[in-house]
Amino acid sequence: MPKLTIDDSEVEVEPGFTVLQACEQAGIEIPRFCYHERLSIAGNCRMCLVEMKRSPKPVAACAMPAADGMVIRTNTPAVEKTRKAVMEFLLINHPLDCPICDQAGECDLQDQAMAYGLDHGRYRETKRAVKDKNFGPLIKAVMTRCIHCTRCIRFSTEIAGVQELGATGRGENMEVGTYVEKALASELSGNMIDLCPVGALTSAPYAFRARSWELRKTESVDVMDAVGSNIRVDVRGAEVMRILPRLNEDVNEDWISDKSRFACDGLRYQRLDRPYLRDGGKLRPATWDEAFAAVAEKVKATKARGIAAIAGDTADCEAMTALKDLMAALGSPHLDCRQDGAHLDASHRAGYLFNTSIAGIEQADACLLIGTNPRVEAPIVNARLRKRFLAGGFPVALIGKKTDLTFSHKHLGTTPNVLDKVASGAHPFAKVLNKAKRPMLILGMGALARQDGAAILAAARKIAEDSGMVNDGWNGFNVLHTAAARVGGLDLGFLPGKMGGRDVAGILDGAGMGEVEIVYLLAADEIDMDRLGGAFVIYQGHHGDAGAGRADVILPGGAYTEKNATYVNTEGRAQVARLAAYPPGEAREDWKIVRALSAVLGKPLPFDSLQQVRARMAEINANFAHTGVVAAPWGTFGEEGRLDPAPFASRLANFYMTDPISRASPTMAKCTEAFVNPARRRTGTDG
Amino acid sequence: MSGETGMPPTDFAFTSGNKKLAKAAVAKYPKGRQASAVMPLLFLAQRQSGGWLPTAAMEHVAGILDMPPIRVYEVATFYSMYNLGPVGKHHVQVCTNLSCWLMGSDEVADSCRKTLGVDFGETTEDGLFTLSEVECLGACVNAPMMQIGDDYFEDLDVTATEGILNVLKGGGTPKPGPQGAREGCEPAGGLTTLTEKPEAQGERSGEA
Amino acid sequence: MTERVLLKNTANPDFHRIDACLAAEGYQGLTKALRKFSPEEIIQLVTDSKLRGRGGAGFATGLKWSFVPKETERPKYLCCNADEGEPGTFKDREIIEKDPHILIEGMAIAAYALGVETGYIYVRGEFDFGARRLEEAIREAYREGYLGKNIRASGFNFDLHVFRGAGAYICGEETALIESIEGKRGQPRLKPPFPAIEGLYGCPTVVNNVETLACIPHILLRGADWFKGIGPEDSPGTKLYCLSGHVRNPGVYELPMGIALRHLVEKHGGGTHSGKKIKAVIPGGVSAPMLPESDLDIDMDFASLAAAGTMLGSGGVIVMDETTCIVRVAMRTIGFFHHESCGKCTPCRDGLYWASKLLKRLEAGKGKKGDVEELERLCGNIFGNTFCPLGDGAAMALRAAIKHFRDEFVYHVEKGKCMVS
After folding, report:
1. pTM for the full model?
2. At what angle do helices B38-48 and B16-27 cross, to 10 degrees?
3. How distant, in Å, are the alpha carbons of A526, B94, B162 from that of B128?
4. C182 interaction partners in chain B (CB closer than 8 Å)
5. Cβ of C128 and B204 within 8 Å?
6. How many CB pairs under 8 A join A and C?
7. ipTM strictly over 0.90?
8. CB pairs under 8 A between B and C
9. Neighbouring residues of A354: CB distance < 8 A, sequence distance ≥ 6
10. Under CATH, which architecture does the C18-228 domain have?
11. C18-228 with C238-321: one CATH topology?
């Protein structure tokens, strides 16, 4: 371990550390613009220059490897002068338009100018100006503000794996851009906004909407996919202004997907802000009492086995717990949380989790993807796979729809026949998996949400077992969920009861035949509403989407930013979303609605506080008692059977619109237009 | 990127001759390092497109080398010998760097302006000449000098400059190289260093 | 001692052809190397000769070669830096056009010593004639068995290719040159890792200047002692000096290292072409700080010039007579560096932009009070803070111009016009 002296104190650091990292470890902050710990080192901004003994010139701390016996000084007048010099140079061609810049208040350049900037400008010549560029509906580019740190270029090239952004021109004429006008098509593009140390790249939907210091910041988790990215929700008044990533090394590192970031404007539209009742075929506003009374009247008139409940993809664990207990109290076994009909088997937790863990991907040395496109189903997981790929020695193969994953992989085929071959060991990739020390597979909903899903699950289990994916301290079997609610629902047993409980298909069939008379949809919008027949539909949720359109009674709940709620991600990690803004109008937190309804139905649930609900959750499943992930014991799951030769289909047709919030989002609509159904070819042949 | 004259081409493909040259260029580099051939291929594309690089040509090169187009744009915009807009048939590039300036590049430049009727950065109306100011071309010994197309014209003065440009105007081919009596960059006063006597270290400073 | 070595054959107009070379001592150095020396012995020989790189920095060639790992599974590369572009420099072009085989031979010997099987000659794009001459010479060398597989039945293989640049001075910086060969923008790379460990395609790579490599066959044939016997002890050998500007006899002169600058300019160059007094001389290309006439009694070697606050650089000597406006010289010089700055680092990109704008304004007679001090401050803020030496060179050149001719700058500020013209 190299030992070096920084500002007269000795520091011992990990081998491979840079001087900048060593300084950080010593508690000395080094100013920087181009350096970012997750990107390759550029060394171009020169803000981090420090003095090094025996070097005639200052050295870039970000790029200099820390070595034994080095003597570094960061607090001399010469270093101070250098920082001031670099700062002045950066500012001569910067427009200094902070009053009209969205970055103001959270701008690295602004902050560091406070420390190293002059109180007046000495520059008397004309400034350089750069024509604004059109980077598409998400990123507003004011390139005159660019300080050429190249973080965005490195991010898109290295992390996102999309080679569209570059530096054109030379010297004074160097510009960051795409050369030909082009919207940046990446599911992770918004992260460039966070990385940009100045106001060159800012959020387009957020443009001129708020100042950073006006915002109330709440730490929370995202529900746009099953990753459970850690986020920060920034609110002004009652309105969510923006969503930013929050560091979690185990889950999303510093990143979030564009849907997680930008779909939040959907929270402003199509909201259910009061109860509704269907009256003469039309929905009319109602009071909570009227709505509950209507439900109570219908329930009273219905046999217990005529009632069913479906939990949707963004339902929270507290609400599911309450509804599950209410269904039990009413005596109905018909409940399910698998809207897509995925053949997930809850008998063994390892059978439905992403056991390797997202961070664990970095330890894997071979990967088989089955019926999944992680790039759209979980861009953060895909970024981790890419990160692992770039480190080398990571063969990846895909069985499913051919696609660009941003890293190279073998496409083995589209049908389960190939899976069969791998399972039987006849396929060459079986050897790759066998040879690997820590192989992994990822099973997507495209493989499980089909008739033969249980057989595919069993085949995948066989591959995992035969290729040694499950051994001491390593579990390479992974299910990649797409619904934020799914693992929580499975953990809570929001599943058909033993006594002939119906699953989603059974509920829908029952409703069609009149055997199921009441269907309680807890934020469930992804089922075929036409199959509900004449059933009385209670819809509890936050958006006027498919479920509300079919409902007889609407109970307005809160979106994920409007409640204190637990979600379990695809790894089995229970995390808490926090109330950042109150639900609009008369809408309420979801578990409270179910609790209130239970009293009206004469089956009062035994909890009155969030604490009590959570105690009940931990009683159902001990995994709710802690926050990390615990290795799930292996078991036998799935059902061996014949595989249907039909090719695996992708579950997500449009990454940008997958749930009621993103469907209500104007920004996601713009993305859909720009990236999914481009009216005209996106790439102009010239600019 | 549209040029000054008409619409830029939207299609580009190497001629069969250039395809062969491109293949030979790629073969100079190790397998998987075909991106190394991007600069020679851009030169071929520029020559084929009449002296400049339409976006379509860059994309064609990107396709051949399996490079993301942006990486090709980056290269094409970095190096000054790639022209991103149309240029005249004769690209007249006058060096105005130090040695050339000391020896009269101002007069050479003025002579070009007068003879061609255009300033730096402009193209004559007939599309025959584009006049550019360039940095040192490594021929300071024969200053002042200019490059037209691939050829260097050196040891210029006003008369020589006018003469060269007029030959080109008339469709002829002027003689490249030094316009005076010298061959290449041999010393102007003839050779001085083969004839000398050996010197000792100390002598030289004294002699000077 | 003043016999021509590198240029001894350039007077022969046919010497670019291999038959003319072979009729003299062409490729005998390579033949001797392959027959009589082990690779280690050649590196030792070059180290013993004390040959220092002729590209500008003057780094010891033998030492540079010794950094290349001997045992490695990766291929190694040799690149010749023929991206001659420092204003005032035109020596490599002379070798390339008139005696290309000496370069090819030097590279083949170096490749043998380093265990390299592939080499590239990075020729600046504008040297069309030179590049074609080199390509023709390479074809001849393959034909005669001095390149390719199993050279002279020694079992040594060496493939050599010409790579043509496309107009970027910065590609003369070795890591930018490597980037350029990889098909990228010619922007310098971080060091460490140094090219000897991770260079072209991430493999061990040596980059040497044309003139440096052209010395190698002569050292092989005549020994380290012979080479060491020419010029000063710590930087021996002959040097190609380029004389241009206001000089009667501009040209490339091959003379021993350490010759006095005044002797070079007055005796060989014949003084100024106009007969007017010399005002200043730039000794090593425009990035080398200029010397006023009073400082011309200095030896042209790495150490002496460094002691005087300037440098030998590429050996591009530019003479300026008393009619020269130093403010315009400074403007043109900084204009050059501004144009050639790659844009990567802040002090070079924005500092030279600033300095260039200010100098243009000053030269045009629109100077303001404080401009000269501002320029000095800019030099201080650029120097030492840039990613590569390009910005340093610019700052040093400007600083020297102001130091020696401050009154001319002040005159521009105060009178709004030039002092001399």
Report:
1. 0.94
2. 160
3. 67, 16, 15
4. 33, 35-36
5. no
6. 96
7. yes
8. 215
9. A381, A442, A478, A479, A480, A481, A569, A570, A571, A572
10. 3-Layer(aba) Sandwich (3.40)
11. no
Q: What is the pLDDT of residues A614-649, one digit of tens each?
A: 999 999 999 999 878 889 999 999 999 999 999 998
B77/A163 Cβ within 8 A: no
Q: Could you please state the CATH topology (level 3) that the domain comprising C326-415 is classified under.
A: de novo design (two linked rop proteins) (1.20.1440)
Other beta carbons within 10 Å of A35: 25
Q: How far apart are CA C302 and CA C282, in angstroms?
A: 14
Of A163, A164, A685, the CB nearest to B56: A685
Q: Are C167 and B80 in contact (CB < 8 Å)?
A: yes
For chain B, list the contacting chains (3+ Cβ pairs, <8 Å): A, C
> Which tops the pLDDT comparison, A671 or B182?
A671
- The verdict on B201 touching C (C-beta cutoff 8 Å) is yes
Looking at domain B10-78, does it have CATH number 1.10.150?
Answer: no
All residues of chain B having their beta carbon less than 8 Å from the beta carbon of residue A687 are 1, 55
State the DSSP code for C355: H
Top residue of C345, C358, C390 to mutate, by most chain A CBs within 10 Å, is C345
Residue of B nearest to C244 (CA): B141
For residue A58, which amino acid is it? P
Residues 6 or more apart whose CB falls under 8 angstroms from that of A116 comprise A31, A80, A83, A84, A86, A87
Tell me the domain boundaries of chain B: 10-78, 90-176
Window 9-48 of A, Cβ < 8 Å to C: 41-47
Helix (H) / strand (E) element for B154: namely: strand B151-154
* Residue count (chain C): 421
One fold for both B10-78 and B90-176? no
For the segment C127-147, what is each residue's pLDDT rounded down to a tens digit? Answer: 999 999 999 999 999 999 999
Span C238-321: which CATH code? 3.10.20.600
The two three-digit tokens of residue A435, written as one number: 């040879």
Query: Which tokens sit at B145?
Result: 């000098």
* Assigned token pair, C260: 């006095």
Q: Please tell me the distance in Å from B186's CA to the nearest CA on chain C.
A: 5
Fold of B90-176: Glutaredoxin (3.40.30)
Contact between A484 and A567 under an 8 Å Cβ cutoff? The reply is: yes
Assess C333–B contact: CB distance below 8 Å, yes or no.
Answer: yes
